[in-house]
Design a protein that fits this description.
Layout lengths: L2 H19 L2 H4 L16 E3 L5 E3 L7 E7 L4 H17 L4 E7 L5 H11 L4 E4 L2 H6 L8 E5 L5 E6 L4 H13 L15
Parallel strand pairs: 3-4, 4-5
Antiparallel strand pairs: 1-2, 3-6, 6-7
Length: 188
Amino acid sequence: MSYRKLLASAAVAAFLVCIDGCGSRNNEAHVRQEKDRKSAPEFSLKDENGKLVKLSDYRGKVVLLNFWATWCGPCKVEIPWFIGFEREYKDKDFAVLGIAMDEDGWKSIKPYMNDKKINYRVVEGSEEASLMYGGVDSLPTTFVIDREGKIASVHIGLVSKTTYVDEISKLLESPKNEKTTSAQPSGS
């Protein structure tokens, strides 16, 4: 085997290992105790149809809130997982909500969504929304939010699919609070 092929094989192997277990500190399922969770900041951003979407529209659901961009390599790895999560858990009070941070907005986002057949709601992000969530500097950055609208976990960068599955499952197992289940998001 040539040196070039060996290097290429090693790079592919490292990437595959990273997808399933890179950065164990950031890769472990870590749902904060309820008492340690802070409220997720409210935002109003527009979806591809120009309709305003607010995080509070999703109160009563577990939400995977993902800041991403069409040019982001790790985002491209996660998106198929999120499509699967939306399909698998949507009838269990769960929703994926993407905040696309592309500079040219819907010009890039819409074709990408159509090409990848994204089945969850996507809104166009803004600097203000990024700052509300601590100044999102790295993509992807994902917040897993409980039914009461509180941040249960945060992931900066790529983490394993099993990390998300474990966190979503844990939060979906939590009993529903009757005060939070009255709000249903429209169009999701």
